[in-house]
Amino acid sequence: MKRRDFFNVLGISAAGLAAGSMIWKNGIAEAWEHSADFCFKEPFDGGIIHKRHGDPVLGVVRGSDGKERLKIRVSGIAPLNAEVRITGPDKKTIIPQRKGTEFFTELLLADQFSEISGTCKIGEKERTIRTRPVWAKNSFKRYKFQIDDNSFFLRDIYQKQYKDLFECFYLAGLRDLHKKYGSRFTLNCFWQTPEKDFDLSRFSERYKSQWEDNSDWLRLAFHAKQEFPDSPYENAAPAELASDFDLVAGDLKRIAGKAYTPPAIIHWGTIRPEAYKVLWDRGSRCLSGYFVPSKLRKWSVSFQLPEEVCQYMLDHEGWMHFETGLTFSRLELVCNMIPLEMTVPILQNSVKIPGTAEVLDFLTHEQYFWPYYKRYLPDHFQRLDAALRFATENGYKPVWHHEGFFSIPSEEKFRPVS
What we know:
Layout: H1 3-9, H2 28-31, E1 39-42, E2 48-49, E3 57-62, E4 68-77, E5 83-87, E6 93-94, E7 97-99, E8 102-109, E9 116-122, E10 125-131, E11 134-135, E12 142-150, H3 152-160, H4 169-181, E13 185-190, H5 208-213, E14 218-224, H6 238-256, H7 276-281, E15 286-289, E16 292-293, E17 299-300, H8 307-313, E18 318-320, E19 327-330, E20 333-334, H9 340-351, E21 359-365, H10 380-393, E22 397-398
Parallel strand pairs: 2-11, 12-13, 12-21, 12-22, 13-14, 15-19, 20-21
Antiparallel strand pairs: 1-4, 3-4, 4-8, 5-6, 5-9, 7-8, 9-10, 16-17, 18-19
Helix pairs in contact: 4-10, 9-10
């Protein structure tokens, strides 16, 4: 069962399949107006793949130089009467096999970033397209865990003036999970509480050494200035996001020192694409999203990525935005949204699909831990425990979102296009 089908079972509708299934119907003049009449179906442009990814990956080949190459299938659609040529990363041009309007061939990738081009020619008319698969060479089974909307625990520590951070039950609970599974947590923070009775400027630096002592597994990140209004950066200018980011990050660095980390999700997961650079410049490298259709907006927590990318991310775990260098990761599970008894079945379903089995990206929200919250979940920690137990028992290792390429600490780093 694919992810889109599974969300249908949960009552979340999935949008129609992405454009790319149009065929040559009405003659040359009209056909050239539709990019889907000549397009690559796989690999998807910017799609992050690895040796266990499944389609379009066919396996790994070791060359005479001892280096591994990733063998992939390249396919697409072209008019029946067109001459099609494919040029691989090695600059060699081949004529693909044809079956009706489909074309297909196999290529080897040697590098992390590759470009494959296709040329379609009919008479004197010619058109070239490209696709750029991204090979996560050193990929391994890994998981990430972040908690959104944090402000209550900071207010609690401020009000109670604990001698030790872990006198706060929330942090103590997370520490218990860390001790049990070796898990790492990023706490995405607001500058002030919804009631505006506390803000980070009031929080003492007295705990800074303790934050730093635990920074190998617990870190603080920017989320938004405050919880309300909803979707604060959906239409905001980049300068507004930058201003709020610097306010929150400034206090977090003062409070927690090296336990500060760049964020991997922004409140409500929607910002204007021209604001991506604000996040890149401040250290973000991988952003997590839901990438599922919703009633509120066409795609929920999708950072306003194009329709075709959101469709791709329904059943795949990673995509790269070449213009900035940001990568996007598909959230596997939002613990406060999924009942305890469904946590393991959802994860079991996901890891059966090669395209979604390599990375488990977990999320939940702080409010649901607190008994005074109107939607308090008494079993919230149990939900986290179930997800972390599944990840650990199935060989997934905890990583940080921003380290290396696509949360692979040993992977070479990408530099954005200038």
